[in-house]
Give the backbone structure.
Amino acid sequence: MSYKSFDVSIADNIAHIILSRPEKRNAMSADFWTDLPKIIEDIDENAKARVIVISSTGPVFSAGIDIAMFGLEISGNGDKNNPQHGAEFYSTVKRMQRTFSVLEACRLPVLAAIQGGCYGGGVDLITACDMRYATQDSFITIYEINVGMTADVGTFPRILNHMPEGIVRELAYTGRKMDAKDCKTYGLYNEVFADQAAMMEAVMATAKDIASKPPLAVYGCKRAITYGRDHSTADALDNIGIWNMSMLIPSEMREAMMAAKEGRAAVFSDLPKVKR
C-alpha cells in the first residue's frame, strides 16, 4: 500500500517507516494523522515485524504539524461565533493524540532516527517512541509557543520522562532550539552520530539485535517499563509477576540458552496476531 507521507518497507523482521515529504520539510498534513496509526497497527496486529524504525528524509526530520490542515479551525476567524468550536477542536486534538499514543501502545519497540530539525509535532512523535538516535546537527524545539499555542499532542507528559522539569519548562516557555549534544546530556537521545548514514547503520544494527530476541519477552519488557513508569513500584512489581506467571514460555528460554551455547541464531515464535 502507498502513502502520501510515508514509505514503508519490511525486511529481516524490521519495519522501516520513512517520512517522505522532504519538499514540505516533512510537515504533518491531514493524511499523516490517519495513516501513521494504520501503518503501526497493521504491522503490530498482523505480526509483520519484531521492531519498528522511524526515520526521515531531507535536511529536516519534521517541521511539525502542517498548520494549513486546520484551516480556520486554528486561525479562529469567525469560529468564536460557532458554539461547537471548542468541542470540535477538542475532538481533533484527541484524534491527533491517539496517532502518537499508538506508538506507545504498540507491542513492538519503536526506534526514532532524527536528522536536522525536529519541530513541534516532531517532538510529540519522537517522545512517544521507545528510543531516540540522532545526528550531531539535529535539534529539537517545542515550537508551539512561537505561534501562540500550547503543545497539546503529547510532548509534555512524555518528555518529562526523559528530561528534568526545569529544562522542559525553559524549552516550552521560550521555544528555543536544543542541540543534539544537550539532548543526549539531558537524556532525550540515546546516542548521537556524525551523520545520517552512520546513524542509520547503528540504528538498524540495534533493531536487528532486538529482532533476534524472543518477541514475547521483548513485548513484556516494553509493557513492564511503560507500566512501571506510570504506576507505583508495588503495583509494577505485582504487574510483572502476573505477566510472567501468565506469559513466560519455558521452551523459549531453553532455545535462548541452547542457541547461545551452540553459537547459533535462536529461533523464536512471532507474536500472535491480534484478533479484533
Observations:
- Residues 85-105 form the longest helix (21 residues).
- The mean pLDDT is 94.
- The first strand starts at residue 6 and ends at 11.
- Strands lie at 6-11, 14-19, 51-55, 60-62, 110-114, 117-119, 131-135, 139-141, 178-179, 191-193.
